[in-house]
DNA sequence: ATTCTAACA
DNA sequence: TGTTAGCA
């Protein structure tokens, strides 16, 4: 990792991508199996990724952390692949976002009711 | 040392 | 998703 050779040049292998995206190599291989991530291979068979892949994985991670499942991230991934700077700029993404919002609202209502009954129990 | 695939005391 | 095995 010399000062010169370490400059965001070529590509990175699965280990580095995982580290920079805050996930595991295992998860990245799984995303690939699910068709969410594309992998180019080097002569030795190792997967090679670039900055674009890093952006994509970070997008996926961000969505997962907000409560979406892997399938929910698909439209966002495709959206970015189609050139959009934001994965939320496509109809498919908007639909997923809207559905999640409704789920959250329902959840809030449930929690409020639970809270109310607990307050009663306390007298 | 790192990645690969496949599979699970 | 983690972990591990046996290779390259």
From TrEMBL:
Keyword Nucleotidyltransferase in the entry? The reply is no
Q: Which residues form the HTH merR-type domain?
A: 11-79
Coiled coil: which residue ranges? none
The answer to keyword Translocase applying to this record is no
One Pfam match: MerR_1
Q: Which domain of life is it from?
A: Bacteria
Record CDD domains: HTH_MerR-like_sg3
* Keywords annotated in UniProt: DNA-binding, Transcription, Transcription regulation
InterPro entries according to UniProt: DNA-bd_dom_put_sf (IPR009061), MerR-type_HTH_dom (IPR000551), MerR_fam (IPR047057)
Protein name per the record: MerR family transcriptional regulator
Q: Which organism is it from?
A: Dactylosporangium maewongense
């Amino acid at each position: 990792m010399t000062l010169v050779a370490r400059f965001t040049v070529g590509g990175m292998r699965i280990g580095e991508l995982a580290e920079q995206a805050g996930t595991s190599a295992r998860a990245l291989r799984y995303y690939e199996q699910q068709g969410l991530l594309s992998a180019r291979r080097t002569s030795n068979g190792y997967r090679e990724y670039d900055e674009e892949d890093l952006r994509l994985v970070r997008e996926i991670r961000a969505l997962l952390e907000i409560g979406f499942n892997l399938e929910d991230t698909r439209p966002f991934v495709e959206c970015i692949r189609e050139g959009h700077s934001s994965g939320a700029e496509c109809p498919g993404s908007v639909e997923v976002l809207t559905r999640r919002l409704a789920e959250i609202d329902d959840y809030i209502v449930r929690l409020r009711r639970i809270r109310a009954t607990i307050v009663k129990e306390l007298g």
